[in-house]
Amino acid sequence: MPAHVRVVVLRPLVTSPNIAVGEYTCNDAPGSVTDFEHRNVLHAHGPEPLTIAKYCAIA
User: CA 15 to CA 18: how far, in whole Å?
Assistant: First the structure.
C-alpha cells in the first residue's frame, strides 16, 4: 500500500507453526512492522496455537 508505508500483510511474515494468520490481515505499527511475530505476540508459550482471523486490522 504505497500511501500507507507502515501497513503490511502479516500472513507471509509469520513463521511460527503456532501462529495462524488469516488472509488479508494487516498490521500498522510504528517501528519494525515486519517483526510483528516477535514484538507483538505474547501468546508464544505452550502448545496452544494462536489464530488471527481473515481481514483483521491490527494497529
Answer: 9
State whether the Cα torsion 56-2-31-9 is positive or negative. Answer: positive
- How far is Cα 31 from Cα 8, in angstroms, rounded to an integer? 12
- Regarding predicted confidence, which is higher, 56 or 2? 56
Nearest one of 13, 36, 10 to 23, comparing CA atoms: 10
pTM of the model: 0.75
CB 52 within 8 A of CB 43: no
Please answer whether residues 51 and 41 qualify as being in contact, where contact means their C-beta atoms are separated by less than 8 angstroms: no
